[in-house]
Amino acid sequence: MFKGVIFDLDGTLVNSLEDLTSAINVVLKQHSFPTHSVAACQSFIGHGLRDLVVKSLPKEYQNEEWVNRCFNEMMVEYRVNCTVKTKMYDGISDLLDELTARGLKLAVFSNKADELTKKVVKEVMPKWNFEVVAGLKIEALKKPNPTVALEISEKTAIAVEDFIFVGDTDVDMITAKSAGMHPIGVVWGYRTKEELTASGAKFILETPLDLIKAL
Fold first, then answer.
1. Closest by alpha carbon to 120, among 149, 67, 150, 84?
2. Which of 26, 27, 57 has its CA nearest to residue 40?
3. How far is CA 189 from the centre of its chain?
């Protein structure tokens, strides 16, 4: 039935939480702001790196000037160190092998900056062929805007209804529904099963290979 799978990146294919936390904390320390635990940063993730910066800053500094300054500083830090501790979740390599063997086309759509999305996929998952790897280029087009998902459908010549969209946040589920794709949530990422179900997940994966059952 399904011919293609679009994956979210952070919290779905790879665990990047430690590298993200480290990068934002380097910036916060430079300005003598309070730093955050990995658990706290986990709750900030899902709407792009700029949003992570906003939520990490003290409330009185959550203005355009400080957000821009700290975002640019974080990008410098993270660009260098975005794959130091980032790795695939257990079972992802087996899943990608199985999907490839079945002839499904694979793609990545992330709210992480486009250059960093491509770098992480290339360095952490070099073995597999992703037809499209798309990160954030234009703020207005970040998920849950379905525009990029629809572009992936066009580029791969696969109808939207033949795509599974796999992610770990409500943003991913809403994106999938808006694009007319099949939303599937994963519980090993940054949000709960309840949040994913409430936002429209048609199937919940406890482990990566559970996706084969959904096919």
1. 84
2. 57
3. 10
3-class DSSP state of 145? coil
Summarize pLDDT for 131-147 with one digit per residue, the tens: 999 999 998 999 999 99
Rounded Cα gap, residues 22 and 76, in angstroms: 12
**C-beta separation of 177 from 200 below 8 A:** yes
User: Reduced to 3 states, what is the DSSP secondary structure of residue 39?
Assistant: helix
Instruction: List the structure tokens of 52.
Output: 């992570």
Amino acid letter, 96:
L
Q: Which two tokens stand for residue 108?
A: 């990545």
Residues contacting 104, CB < 8 A, separation 6+: 2, 3, 4, 5, 215
Helix axes 147-156, 170-179, angle to 10 degrees: 60
Which token pair is 196?
């994913």
> pLDDT tens across 146-192, in order?
999 999 999 999 999 999 999 999 999 999 999 999 999 999 998 89
Q: How far apart are CA 211 and CA 204, in angstroms?
A: 9
The H or E element spanning position 55 is helix 49-56
- 171, HSE (Cβ side, Cα atoms, 13 Å): 22
Q: How many CB atoms lie within 10 A of CB 121?
A: 20
Instruction: Specify the pTM.
Output: 0.90
- Angle at the Cα of 84 (from 79 to 87), degrees rounded to 5? 110
